[in-house]
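Holo prediction. Input below; ligand is nicotinamide-adenine-dinucleotide.
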Amino acid sequence: MRFLITGAAGFLGSALANRLAAEGHSVLALDDLSAGDPKKLSEQVKFIRGDVNDRSRLWTLLQEVDCVYHLAARVSVPESVLYPREYNQVNVGGTVTLMEAMRDVGVHRVVMASSGTVYGEQVLQPVSEQAIPNPRSPYAVSKIAAEYYVRTIGSLWHIETVCLRVFNAYGPGQRVPSVHAPVIPWFLRQAWENGTLVVHGDGSQTRDFVYIDDVVDAMVAAATAEDVDQQIINVGSGTETSLVELVHEVLEVTGGNPEVVYYPRNEGGLSRLCADIHLAREKLGYNPTTPLADGLKSTLEDYLAHREND
Ligand code: NAD
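Structure of the complex:
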């Protein structure tokens, strides 16, 4: 098949692009490099630097494409609190531009990377797709708005749409920016260097940490699965892990002896979040296989192999 992936030089996009190319598919990788790194892409992937809001560029790229994966986005919850307008322009505006271009060219299917954060605070855990979204940050609002645009424009123009609500993905290749770093690569780095692990709150808050290979499995399946048009599907591990448990696992894997400090809880931080993955199992044949300890080990090995480049 022929794919276009937006945001393809990022953490999830590059892993997806490399997997599809290794399976023999033709892969066009679009990214503006605001956060991505094209060096992560294998030689079989054709990289194009460009903005997802560039409609005429999209018209050209979409010719003969069978399925689009839409991953281009700004992805930090705390950053979105500071710059909501940018999050709206890229995550919502970019999605609408892409859908319009897909409509014009006549592309058959789009798989959008949405997020488990759209659920916000929910009493019932694990959270199923039936839960009413309760977004708590501009990032979460932008993802739910993008979902609505994808599904609405899709149904009006007969474009099949699948929105995957990815929970806390982690694994090799995840960037560790100097501010607002994702918790797993940051904790691993700090523990290995015997630095400080900062936990916001008492550490009882939970998340669903899902390994990148499992997420890519779900994404690959979504391109060809039958009977998935208009579906919203959770992609997590299905396991709820508290931050205290995560710290424990990180210390086990690294053998480090960092200082662990507890700061006041972040404003807007969720107390629990775990995915109900029954629908993904049913619709995508999804079966996450990487336990947290194994995933942390591979992530640490990747960090150690590449740290001189950081
Ligand atoms: P990432 O930042 O590594 O990847 C996003 C990519 O999009 C980057 O390479 C960036 O350069 C690119 N991009 C940003 N603005 C762009 C624009 N205007 N035009 C073209 N490219 C642009 O983040 P990621 O973790 O790989 O996330 C990928 C997608 O998955 C995002 O849509 C994100 O919302 C979603 N998601 C990720 C997670 C996770 O845990 N990693 C969880 C839920 C959802």
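The chain has ten helices and 13 strands. That is the main takeaway for now.
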